Structure formats: C-alpha cells, structure tokens
Amino acid sequence: MLYIIGLGLADERDISVKGLEIVKRAERVYLEAYTAVLLVDKDVLEAYYGRSIIIADRETVESRSDSILAGADKVDVAFLVVGDPFSATTHADLALRCRQNSPPIPTRTLPNASILTAVGATGLSLYSFGQTVSMVFYEENWRPDSWYPKVKENADLGLHTLILLDIKVKEPNLKALERGKYVFDPPRFMTAAQCAEQMLETEETRAASEEGKSTGVSGKERLAVGVARLGSEGEKIVAGTLEELAQQDLGKPLHSLVLCGWKMHEMEWEFVRDFAVDREKFDEIWKRDYAGKGVQ
Amino acid sequence: MLYIIGLGLADERDISVKGLEIVKRAERVYLEAYTAVLLVDKDVLEAYYGRSIIIADRETVESRSDSILAGADKVDVAFLVVGDPFSATTHADLALRCRQNSPPIPTRTLPNASILTAVGATGLSLYSFGQTVSMVFYEENWRPDSWYPKVKENADLGLHTLILLDIKVKEPNLKALERGKYVFDPPRFMTAAQCAEQMLETEETRAASEEGKSTGVSGKERLAVGVARLGSEGEKIVAGTLEELAQQDLGKPLHSLVLCGWKMHEMEWEFVRDFAVDREKFDEIWKRDYAGKGVQ
C-alpha cells in the first residue's frame, strides 16, 4: 500500500495520530520537498518520527517514481506531503500511476490541513473565495501574468482570491551550468510583499499598454491580506492596501496573499481590520469600495 | 488560551499529535457537534483521548458562549471542531468574541483536513474550483435555490463547484412543539443522491417558469462526482451524470457532491472516469461537452 500522508503546515507534530502510526511501521518513508516546505528541517522529522526519511525531489517523483513504488503492492510505503496530499496535482498523478501499475498498487490518502483552508484564519469566509491562483517569480524577460484574468474573474463576482507564492528549491544555477558545473541555487521563497509588488507592476504595465487590458483589480488601493507561517505559533497576518503590503516584511516563509473581493461582508471586515497596517485607511477604503456590496 | 482544534474528517485518530497533547492537558474539552459530525461517536473520542467531552450545540456556541470561554484567559480550554476550524463561520465568530472579551482571551487555531481540500481525492484539481455552495433540505413549501446562481457563476467560468450538504442534528420536532413538547427529530444527513435530485428539480422548475431562468447548469446530463466519508477507510467516490447520481446509494454519511466545470482537463478526466457509474457514457459526454474546452 502506498500511503500519501499530509503533514499539515507547521512542524513535526502536525501529522495526524493515524499518519504517525503508519510512518512508524512503513517499510520506507519519503518526503516530497519541492511543492511546499515545513517550518522545520528533515532531521527534526526524523528524530521525532524515529525513522530515516528519503527526500523525493521533483525529478524523482515525476520521472523516477518506480523507485518510490517498488514493492508497494506487497509492503507499506509512506509518501509524506507538506500540507494536504491533493494540494498539488503532482500527487494525484502519483496516485494515478499506482492505479495503472501492473499489478495495481493500492493507495490510501490521509488528508491534512492545507493553506487553502487555513487561510480562514484571516476571518475571510472560505465560501467567498473563487479559484486559487499561483504567482511565479518575475524574471528579467519573463513576467507571466496569467494570474491576472483569473483574479479578474473572481473580482467580477466579488470573490476573494487566494494567491499561492512561488518557491524555488534545488534549482540548478544556470551560469554554473553553462560552465558545465551542476550547482544549486539557494532556496527562494516569494514573500507577500514581492507578490504585491508584482501585482502592482502588472496593473501598471497593462494600464500603459492597450486599452482595456487594465481593469484596476490589482491597483494600489485594492485591499488584501498577507499571511505568513499559518497554523504555526509564529503565524502572522497583515491586512492593508496592495501598496501598503508591498512594504510589509512578514518574516520567514511561507507566505501567501489574499486579494479581497468586493463582497467582503461586514463580519469579515470586523475580523480582518484588526490586522490592518493602518486601520483608519482600511476602514475608509472598505466603506467606500466594499461595504454593503455583498448584500444579496 | 482557547484552542480551536480541527479533528479532521473520519475518526478519533485524525487529530494531530499536537492537538492531542492539548486535549490531554486542557482544563475543559468541548466538541462542536452541529455543523459536521465525525464517523465515530463521542464515547469513542472520550475513550481514546482519555478525557470527558462536553457537547456544544448551536445554542451553546452562538448564544451561551460565556460558559465555554469562562476562565479561558487563565486556563487552557479546547474547543474541538470536525474538519477544519474555519470551515464554518461560527468558529471565526467565536474567535472574534475571544478577542473582544474583557480581558481578551488569547486563542490559537490548529488547522486540519477539510472537505474543501479532501475533495481533491476525486482527481479534480483544487485550482479549478469556484466558490463553494451549500444545499439545504427542500421542504414542502420551501425550496430555496440560492445555490443556483452561484453554480451558474462557476459554470460560466468552466469551474467545478463543491456542494456541501445539509445536516440536521438536534432539531426540535415542530408537531410535538405545537403540543408543548420538546422532542428532537432523529439526525438527518442529506445524501449525494438527494442533492442531485434537488438540483434536477430546480432546473426543471426554472425551465417551466420564466424565460431565461433555466440555464441548463444542473440538467440531467451534467457530469458530477458524489463523495462519501472522504478521508476514511470506507470512502466512496462515484462519478456520473446528475441523473445517474440521483439513483446512487453512497451509504452512510457524510456526503458531498461536486458539479464538474467544462474546463475539466484531460488529466482530471483520466482520474475521475475510473469512478464512473457508466464509463462509456461518462467518456462520451466528457468528449462532447467538456474535452479541450479547458485549453487556454
């Protein structure tokens, strides 16, 4: 049996009691370590779980999954995933490969906390979120804004958008690669401030280009909430305009950002405003652009 | 400190290791038992956690929360919630009351698995879901279809809709109440089949009434996925048309239903079709109405 086990968001003790029992008895234990990371290192997990853990990078999971699945039709293998098992499509893909294996490998999934629901800690109602989008690091000549039309779709319906932020772990250094050397760049995690900055930039670029490409959905005075290390003791939530959030340092990773929809209800506002950088300004903009618009 | 602790979806061992430690040492332990239920009874939790548990019904949480919060500025109180703490707005409300209490009561939330992400087990991508909607039991003279325009908004964008199904626990029997007696009805949990049935009915009613009120979004041949007891060993997933699902018995609660959006990608289809009641028909409809529409 292949057990795909969610670890939750913060540390070694966010695994479920059931998940821990399986980890302790499994033949081999893998940790997927490229779509998200915990706030603690692998050796902390190993010490707590009493097991040695094999790191599964993107290449192993996507191209060499045979090594993970070997013998799993007979013995138990645990595949640990930060957050919830189905937070990344790559895990559904792994489950599918088990099913299509000959002989088929039975799988079982143990769900756990995900950023998709933990974001409820902001006070924004999970029922008022539209589709989730991803934001990648803008590079010099590559500033992909495919997130923009999706945010716009949500915004048109008055819905919030959760924006998941890029992480780069174990990326080969391209300059070293040109010289024939295989060196890894240090890990990079996008901050909520960087995300806000990129959103403002795209809004400006669109405004400066063709007519109609800019819609104002990620303009300076749009309200948003930045979150960091949700679900951990050191979690941090900061609310404000995108312009304000672009200046906020939320500390260590992982960060995410929520862009608020105009249906933001009075009850949500009452909760969220406690996290505001500048409460007076937050209230003013909420009353001007959001308040009462959600009444149906 | 008030700890709002998610229990996950299935049984007593889905609590996190961290959550269990808090439950064991808390002064009092409450279980919120009206927005969702576990698949095991309170006494199973009590035996496993080694604690006696106070059931908190809707009235206690919403109108008499003082009893829950009493002394929580000095001692630890655990408030257990099935699924994830922020899956229901009532819990955000409780956290807000702690903050506004005098003196303020510190709170901490321990996220856990939620149906909102566990539904990824269907193979449908969590990034392709729009807003979540709720379906209540239709009564003789009350058939509220406020879910319909929201499903339509998602459908217009090609997005999936997760539909959470009504549960009725500890509801007073109205006929007995008329006679001055306070008797509770047995608990009721909406099945995926009942939900599909109600959706078909509303589509028909709208088609028979004014022009333009019916849009076909919950018509007979729309593809959907019914899920039951997700995250447990006995989880069941069945895919098919709404008409087919209205005839499917998924067994014991809790059930939910996903209405598929036309952006359903080939990879999602490949996963989901394995759960189809009638795979040939499922494939045919997918190819006719969904396939390739999601390519951007």
From TrEMBL, chains A, B:
Q: Which organism is it from?
A: Cryoendolithus antarcticus
What's the catalysed reaction?
2-[(3S)-amino-3-carboxypropyl]-L-histidyl-[translation elongation factor 2] + 4 S-adenosyl-L-methionine = diphthine methyl ester-[translation elongation factor 2] + 4 S-adenosyl-L-homocysteine + 3 H(+)
- So which domain of life are we looking at? Eukaryota
Q: Which keywords has UniProt assigned to this entry? A: Methyltransferase, S-adenosyl-L-methionine, Transferase
Q: Please give the name of this protein.
A: Diphthine methyl ester synthase
Q: Which residues form the Tetrapyrrole methylase domain?
A: 1-246
Leader peptide range in chain numbering? none
What is this protein's function?
S-adenosyl-L-methionine-dependent methyltransferase that catalyzes four methylations of the modified target histidine residue in translation elongation factor 2 (EF-2), to form an intermediate called diphthine methyl ester. The four successive methylation reactions represent the second step of diphthamide biosynthesis.
